[in-house]
Design a protein that fits this description.
This protein is an alpha+beta fold. It folds into 3 domains: about 90 residues, conserved putative lor/sdh protein from methanococcus maripaludis s2 fold; about 90 residues, Elongation Factor Tu (Ef-tu), domain 3, CATH 2.40.30.170; about 120 residues, Helix hairpin bin (Helix Hairpins, Orthogonal Bundle). Helix content is about 25%, strand content about 40%. It is built from 4 helices and 19 strands. It has a 6-stranded antiparallel β-barrel with strand order 2-9-12-11-10-13. The radius of gyration is 47 Å and the shape is rod-shaped. The two termini are about 90 Å apart.
């Protein structure tokens, strides 16, 4: 076989193989295209997800936007003070002879707390009283002699001055003797005892403290923007961490006449009845003042979605989630006022917001028992 014939045969075989390969490739492509169309047919009319599969609705819990009367409040922090408070001190330098109180005891005004040695004061009083008796006798005799012109008017005046001077000395001696007995200046409860029998105390030495806590004075500051809303008689509620579940109610008694230029706030004083003595001077309390009411739209705090400095909520409409920008107002425990962006009756998502995007289909679920107890009965949530 010549070389020319061999080349012709090889070319024919190669061409036949190329035709067979092309035919096989076209058949495989036709099969794939037909299978894809068959798989896509059942999904017609349903939304497709990013991978071509149908997207399931996201389960969420919703709550309605409520229209209510909202109590506007001013919040502040205050320090409790006794209605009356004083350190009991001595006025004279004498040894203590008796202590008449026990620590924590309730005492009445005028009740004896401590007795000091008054021997010297009693002696001084006796001398002053003796001098007074003598000067009084001389003064009475001088008046008789003046009538008979035996004594001149100037002599009578000198005797009278001596008499009145002795009266003053007796009064001073009695006052010094009275100072050896330390009494309660008002009704209250005494604190810790700081002296003992035999102690030599001097003027200014603190014996104990006395506090009248039947009424607690509560001092706190509010911004100057609220000055017009704060007035005597305004009701307040206060709480202490020591009694977390107890509200102590009282009223504003006075408002300072000046605004602090460094803090731009004004000091307010309220009075809280304290018949059981639960509140103690020095306690730190959270204060709430009611400053009126307004018609407001309220949503649960859980519905808020902060994002880049703004706040959004998801509203469920016709089975889909709509993301809305809102402007907030006052807050209260568990709720927040919405000033713009919602209307009463809108159903906002309170659980499941992290899984939502605008336009996503949702399936409303029943709220957990704890949430129902806080605001709505079981089964209240339904598809709008």
């Amino acid at each position: 076989m010549s070389d020319t014939t061999r080349k012709v045969l090889l070319g024919a075989v190669a061409g036949a193989l190329l035709v067979l390969f092309y035919t096989h490739v076209m058949k495989e492509r036709s099969k794939r295209d037909g299978g894809a169309q068959t798989a896509a047919a059942p999904a017609a009319g349903r939304p497709a997800g990013p991978s071509g599969f149908s997207q399931r609705p996201v389960g969420v819990v919703v709550a309605p936007v409520r229209a209510e009367r909202l109590a506007l409040e001013i919040e502040a922090l205050g320090t409790a003070r006794a209605n009356e408070s004083v350190e009991i001190t001595a006025k004279v330098a004498n040894p203590v002879t008796a202590v008449r109180f026990t620590e924590g005891q309730r005492v009445r005004r005028g009740e004896v707390l401590v007795e000091l040695d008054g021997a010297q004061e009693r002696a001084e009083l006796a001398v002053a009283e003796a001098a007074l008796v003598e000067s009084r006798r001389q003064y009475e005799r001088s008046r008789e002699l003046y009538d008979t012109r035996v004594l001149s008017e100037s002599q009578i005046e000198q005797i009278e001055a001596t008499f009145k001077g002795n009266e003053a000395r007796v009064a001073a001696a009695r006052a010094r003797l009275a100072d050896t007995v330390v009494r309660a200046p008002f009704d209250g409860r005494v604190g810790l005892r700081r002296v003992s029998v035999g102690s030599l105390i001097s003027p200014g030495t603190v014996i104990t403290t006395l506090d009248d806590t039947s009424i607690i004075k509560l001092d706190f500051s509010v911004p100057e923007s609220y000055v017009s809303a704060v007035r005597p008689g305004l009701a307040i509620r206060a709480r202490s961490v020591a009694f977390a579940d107890t509200d102590f109610e009282g009223k504003v008694s006075s408002v300072d006449t000046r605004v602090d230029p460094s803090t731009r706030s004004v000091t307010v004083r309220a009075e809280l009845p304290n018949p059981t003595g639960q509140l103690k001077p020095g306690m730190f309390l959270t204060v709430r003042l009611a400053r009126g009411t307004v018609d407001a739209l309220l949503v649960p705090e859980e519905a808020l979605v902060p994002e880049q400095g703004d706040v959004y909520v998801y509203v469920v409409t016709d089975g889909t989630a709509d993301k809305r920008l809102v402007r907030l107002g006052e807050r209260r425990v568990g709720d927040v006022q919405v000033l713009e962006g919602l209307v009463a009756g809108d159903m906002v998502v309170t659980e499941g917001t992290q899984k939502l995007r605008p336009g996503v289909a949702v399936a409303i679920q029943e709220a957990p028992p704890a949430i129902r107890q806080a605001g709505e009965p079981a089964g209240a949530a339904a598809t709008p």
